[in-house]
């Protein structure tokens, strides 16, 4: 008998298309998923290609920790080989076109599918059913709009509202992942490092915002003094805990 962890919070598909995720959560989930795939490709004794990466196969727990699931189509790749020729399996919309046409499965096939997930996170559109007015698939339309500088036409409004310059960087990364030729795509380790770098940059920005909020609080609650005695008396009568300052800062608009 096999016992699996119970993951109670549904799939990434549910959270993207039925509910709604913040931009921070989308980037966090993408980074965790990339890390999982990079581990499968390069950190296990025999590399594993998942072969069916899609939002339905990414499970989320109560803290939105991502769990890559459904390894029914996965394949081992011998260390001395870069790929294998095998019967095509996967999901239309996420399927690597080179694998589809040549039956050659490599780690870059997972990279393509992950790139589609990035597009899905950015647009909140379904890769398997979307068609543009010109008849293009989601990926083809996304690539075209980025090249034309018209990406705002397809981005999810919440991403536009909450995201910063990192949105464009993720979009560029997605387009690199879905390049037609597998050799032109990055490895999942490179994708992971890029996303972690973006997330670290975002964390630094948020830390700076919090610091500025505390500075605003100090200015608001400590009036200027005319001499050192006043300052000392004022300091002795105004003792605020970190929690008090945080509560005060939360009243200021972000």
From TrEMBL:
GO cellular component, as recorded: plasma membrane
Highest taxon of the lineage: Eukaryota
Record-level Gene Ontology MF annotations: ATP binding; protein serine/threonine kinase activity
GO biological process entries: cell surface receptor signaling pathway
Family matches, as PROSITE patterns: PROTEIN_KINASE_DOM, PROTEIN_KINASE_ST
Pfam family, one: Pkinase
Spans traversing the lipid bilayer: none
Key words of the record: ATP-binding, Nucleotide-binding
InterPro entries (UniProt xref): Kinase-like_dom_sf (IPR011009), Prot_kinase_dom (IPR000719), Ser/Thr_kinase_AS (IPR008271), WAK-like (IPR045274)
Domain Protein kinase: from-to ranges: 1-202
Coiled coil: none
SUPFAM superfamilies found in the cross-reference section: Protein kinase-like (PK-like)
UniProt cross-references to SMART domains, sorted A to Z: S_TKc (SM00220)
PANTHER family referenced in this protein's UniProt entry, alphabetically: PROTEIN KINASE DOMAIN-CONTAINING PROTEIN, WALL-ASSOCIATED RECEPTOR KINASE-LIKE 21
Record's protein name: Protein kinase domain-containing protein
Species of provenance: Triticum turgidum subsp. durum (Durum wheat)
Organism classification: Eukaryota, Viridiplantae, Streptophyta, Embryophyta, Tracheophyta
